[in-house]
Each structure stands twice: as structure tokens, then as C-alpha cells.
Amino acid sequence: MTSPLDDKTRGIIKACVPALEAHGLAITTEMYRRLLANPDIRDLFNISHQKDGEQPRALALAVLAYARNIDNLGAMAGAVERIAEKHVGLNILPEHYPYVADALLGAIAHVLGDAATPEIMDAWGKAYWFLAEILIGREEQIYVAHAAAPGGWVGWRPFRVSRRTVESETVTSFELTPVDGKPVMRHVPGQYLSFRLDVPGYGSERRNYSISSAPGSQSYRISVRRIDNGVVSDWLHDSVPEGTVLQVSAPAGDFTLGAPAPAPIVFLSAGSGLTPFISMLGALDAGAATGVRYIHTTRTPGTEAFGPYIRALAAKGMLCADLFYSRATPEAAQDATGVTTHAGRMTPAWLAQEIDRAVTYYICGPDGFMRDTIATLKAGGVPESQIRFEFFGSAADAALVG
Predict the structure, then answer these.
(1) Locate the FAD-binding FR-type domain: which residues (predicted)?
(2) Tens digits of residue pLDDT in 86-139
(3) CA-CA distance, 256 to 302, in Å (whole number)?
């Protein structure tokens, strides 16, 4: 068991909060510069998040949250679980942690200069390894569970693209079947797969994609939106035909529906944020659930993925749907039984009028969409325990760091 931090160490960490508020981003930027100089460590990261500064911003917020909550680390439980799940998806191992320690402590000393006294450096060393040991312990539990699960595995497993399906102008689905022909671990609806990809001209890349299929034992499906100038999304859409073999780690993630599912449920998504909800809806449909509300924003009817599936579920009474087209005015014919279409984005004012405090809300989409949606639900009196959301990227938005 990890020994608790002593009072002196916690006091020093708390005293560093103003310095982190002022220099946290500089510290994490320097940390990643040092860390990514090692090619073996570099390959563990999504480099696109480095180019746009998203990863350093997200880590700066996480370090600041850790310092602010050093006396009440229970408040960080959700964040710790998300980090552990992501680490497992990327096959992070205990031997990787010393590299991060050296880079972080070196960055603190570099940025703070003479203000980084021996006492401060000692406190941050203890604080880092305290959290690292918690993460290592939790990650080991997840790895053991994956190895023991029927169809489960640890590490990278080769999967073949057995089918490609165009879902919209911007989204293509890839069905993935294990090369060894053996069963796969049944995922929990809402989980994602992590991929180690070799992209010509770019080298090794890491990505996470939500599973969009209902739980099963033979295959998985991911549904990928083409992103403007997206290194991996462009490659998947343009250069990965059926038969391509991809390296995949076991399903991970804590943004899950669970069993039994809470009721009633509202799914709120924008863009490709719908993908985990398609998996959840598949599981609910298998159980003949009803009373689900599905609210989704997309650009146009042409970019609406899984539209026929949603309308089929609505037609048989499983759900009612509100579909918002941010760049188009829907035709009246696009409305159907249980489906209402709207011109423009879903606004906080519209959502505020629709709030039901007895409902559990699941939210997935770009950070700005999630931030506005969560704020509206909280202002409307929905308890935090009934607001569940998934991150895209690294959640470099202070309002989304738990």
C-alpha cells in the first residue's frame, strides 16, 4: 500500500499553487520537450496533441488540480481512473514512470530556477511517486483483469479490417476481427480501443477510438470522422482497405453505460461524439429498453452518421431524437416518427427548457460543446452524479478536469 504524504510535503505542494498557476504551462511544455527527446518514449504519445499544445495544457491543469487537492485526493479519484484506463490502452508500464519523473522534476527546476529550492524539489519528487504508485497499482489491476477475461489480452494484438462502411460524408466505420481467429473480450458500452499505427511518412502514431458496435465476442467496430489535415484520420479513410492489419490493445475507458443501465437516459452529442452512444444504444436495444432520448448536433444531413439506425430505433419506440443541423435547414420530410429536426446548433437556452432533474445525462463531443452543456445542466439543478461525460483528446479545458 502507498504510504501517505507527510504534512510537510503536502504543505509545500499547496504553497506551490500560485507558482503553478503562473508557470504551469511552461513547466509541462518543458517537461514534454525533455521527455519526447527519447524516441522510445515519444512513440507512446499522440504527437498531434503536442503540435497544438493540447497535451501540455491538459497536463498543466492536471498538475494544478493535484496540488489544489493534495489534502483531499478523493476528489481526484475520477481523474486518476481516467488516466489509468488511458495508460492501459497505450500499454504504459512501470518502467516508463522514471522517465516522466526525471522530465517533470527537471522541468520544474529549469522553469522556477532559484525558486526551486531543495525542499520544493524533494516535495515534488515525493508527490510524483505517491501518485505514480497509485496509478501503477491500478493499472496492474486492469491488466490482470484484461488477461483473465474471456477473449482478453495484454499488449498489442493484430486485428484485420474485415469490413469498411461509409456512414456519412465524413464518417467511415471499420469492423475489426482478430487475426488469430479467437474470440475478443466483450467491451462495456462506451469504452474505446487504442491503436499503434505505422503511418507512411509520419511513423508510429497512437490513437484512441470509441467502439461503436454493441458488445460481442467476435469483433469490434470503430467509426472515424475525417478531420481536416488529420494525419491518422486521412490515412484511415484513404489508405486502409479491407484486409489491412492494425495493432490494437484491449478495450479501456470508464465512460460506460454499466449494467443495469440508469434510467431514464439522455444522450447528448456533437460531431463524432455519437460513437460511444451508438454502442450503448446497441446494448440497450438488445435488452429491449425504452425511454431513451437522443440529442445530436451535426453540420448537415450529409454529415449525419448512423441516421437510418437512429430513425429505426425511434420508429419502434425505443427512443425519441432531436437532431440539430448547424449548417443546414432540414426539410420537413426529414422528420419521422420519434425524430424532430432543428436548424442551427443546440443552444444552452433550448437545453435549459428541456432539463429533467431525474435523468442521467451522457455527454460526448468537442470540449466547448461539453463545457456549455455541463454548465447548463448544473445551472438547471441536475446533480453532478447524473452528469457523465467523455473526453476527446486530452481535455485541455479547466471546466472538464475532474
Answers:
(1) 154-258
(2) 999 999 999 999 999 999 999 999 999 999 999 999 999 999 999 999 999 999
(3) 28
Whether 95 is a known active-site residue: answer no
- Model confidence at 260, pLDDT cuts 50, 70, 90, reads confident
Starting at the earlier edge strand, list the strands of the sheet with 292-298. 339-343, 319-325, 292-298, 265-270, 360-364, 387-390
227-236 long-range contacts (CB < 8 A, ≥24 apart) are 230/48, 231/48, 231/199, 231/202, 231/205, 232/48, 232/197, 232/199, 232/205, 232/207, 235/197, 235/199, 235/200, 236/172, 236/174
CA 93, 213, 326, 352 torsion: positive or negative?
A: negative
Residues 212-246 have pLDDT tens digits of 999 999 999 999 999 988 999 999 999 999 999 99
Residue with cell 496492474: 140
* Phi, psi values for residue 186, rounded to 5°: -65, 125
The number of helices, as runs of H, and strands, as runs of E, in the chain is 13, 12
- The pTM of the full predicted model, rounded to 2 decimals, is 0.92
In the chain, the amino acid numbered 33 is R
Query: Active-site residue among 30, 54, 85, 139?
Result: 139
Q: Is 133 part of the annotated catalytic residue set?
A: no
Over the stretch 302-319, which tens digit does the pLDDT of each residue have? 999 999 999 999 999 999
